[in-house]
Amino acid sequence: MKKIAVVILNWNGAKLLEQFLPSILAFSDEATIYVADNASTDDSIEVLKNQFSSVKIIQNSGNFGFAKGYNEALKFVEEEYYALVNSDIEVTKNWLTPILELFETQPETAIIQPKLLDFKRKTHFEYAGGAGGFIDKFGYPFCRGRIFDTVEEDKHQYDDDIEIFWATGACFFIRKEVYRKLNGFDDEFFAHQEEIDLCWRAFNQGYKAKYTSKSIVYHVGGATLNEGNPRKTFLNFRNSLLMLTKNLPKNQLFTIILSRLFLDGLAGIQFIFKGKFKHFWAIIKAHFAFYYLVNQFCRKRTTTQKNHYYKIKSIVFSYFIKNGKVFVDLF
What does pLDDT average to over the chain? Predict the structure, then answer.
């Protein structure tokens, strides 16, 4: 058995599979390739059977979203390391070699992210994860190479291997034993920020997440749900609050949640001024969904919540007030 399983979650993405599977098949000799299908209604399965017969197909019984979709599929995948790869990812030669080396030489490293560049503008980092993710004190995520809507050109400023707080779900490597020990992603997130939640739970258990620039992939981004979709706004705001509820130390929980609700309100007012009323309403709905679920998520808290690792107190303040538009200007 090969050590790595590349698992691509698909939902009605036949055209993406035709476009991006060839690079994965060409450059992944170290891996077994799987497509986990979320009950697609297009011709995805036919495309796989007719054009990519070497790919193993796992068929989920419904469209379970990102979180549950992977959780269901990975019950049938026994390779030692999982590479969870979006269907709109193009990989490069030897992309798996540095990942294997890190896993084999650093037993404390449980999660790894490669360098994520923009498929449409390959000189620049990609929005979804750039060169590794962090969160601020209030749980707002950001990453090297992309702060809010400011995306940096790749000038090799992040050609390093460092510890990060979260790895992007667009191309997410994790040890099978750790994934199963942590019970995978949280099904109730459906999509968005479930990878940050999983990384935070791993951090609370003493595991490390790493970024390596030696592995490079290109991501289209927004191929299934684009940035302008209010549904994405709803999921991001709701899931961020739920993630904080699960993972913050008890002595920080109330004050940070209260602060986040206030800051989310400011974000909603900004949407009103921009005429994005559907996004304002998405935040309101996210807060009511959070109130509905908060007790349930409090019961998901474990006995171990460490003080979370943040590099700056407020990414909002650093970006909008101090005008820190790129990572090195935040400090």
Answer: 94
